[in-house]
Amino acid sequence: MRILNRLAFPLALAAAALMETPATAQSFCDLVPASLVQSTLGIPGLTAAPNTEGGNGCDYKAMAAGPITIIADATEDSGLYSMVFTQRAANLGPGGVLVPGLGTAAYYIESHGEQIPQYPNLGYTKQVLVFRAKGKIVSYICMIPNNGVGKTAVLALGQATLSKPINTLKNP
User: Fold this and answer.
1) What is the rounded distance in angstroms from the CA atom of residue 89 to the CA atom of residue 108?
2) Where would I find the beta strands (DSSP E) of the chain?
3) 125, 114 in Cβ contact below 8 A?
4) Would you call 41 exposed, middle or buried from its count of C-beta atoms within 10 A (0-12, 13-18, 19+)?
5) The dihedral of CA 162, 163, 165, 169: what is its sign?
6) Which of 133, 145, 146, 156 has a beta carbon 3.0–4.6 Å from 66's, enabling a disulfide?
7) How far apart are CA 70 and CA 169, in angstroms?
8) 61 vs 33, 84, 96, 141, 160, CA distance in Å?
């Protein structure tokens, strides 16, 4: 009985530690499914596929007047990634604004008239949202024909993502 009492406390501590350890998400697609992106941005027919080329991201695609591509990714908020985020946020250039209230820091950049070589007669709007939160730097790059989607919709996608446990994403 004494041996059981001696083991009870360490076993309880080990069990508590296991319960506190968050599960690790496989990819961005696991946390932010195409249905959420579709409903938030108002783009029907989106599909999602993991993008593991250098990250743990997700590629969302649909066909409309031309292909719609949304690339999402998350990296650790440390080292070179952290330095690049900080420098970029300090030098946004035309079409860029800081976004208060989204994570600990965020910026949004919008540019019109972008081109994709395979679709030379179609103009795209490129909308970029990057934010820092929960130890990660999360980015969305949206290439949408014509005028894109409203800035508020892109920011709402950021807020929806922020409500997810992005800190559980595996590091690339």
Assistant:
1) 9
2) 47-51, 57-63, 67-76, 96-98, 105-116, 119-133, 136-145
3) yes
4) buried
5) negative
6) 145
7) 19
8) 12, 27, 24, 12, 19
Pairing outcome for strands 105-116 and 119-133: antiparallel
CATH 2.60.40.3500 for domain 23-168: no
Place of tokens 């800081």: 98
Distance CA 71, CA 144 (A): 11
Whole-angstrom distance, CA of residue 42 vs CA of residue 53: 27
Distance of alpha carbon 156 from alpha carbon 124, whole angstroms: 21
Which pLDDT tens digit goes with each residue over 134-163? 999 999 999 999 999 999 999 999 999 999
User: How many other CB atoms are found less than 10 A from the CB of residue 8?
Assistant: 10
pTM of the model: 0.82
Between 34-41 and 151-162, two packed helices, what is the crossing angle to 10 degrees? Answer: 150
- Tell the residue number behind the tokens 């941005």, with chain if given: 41
What is the C-alpha separation between 35 and 43, in angstroms, rounded?
Answer: 10
Residue type, 78: S
What gap in Å lies between CA 98 and CA 86, rounded to an integer? 12
DSSP letters, 77-98, are SSHHHHHHHHHHHH---TTEEE
End-to-end CA distance of the chain: 48
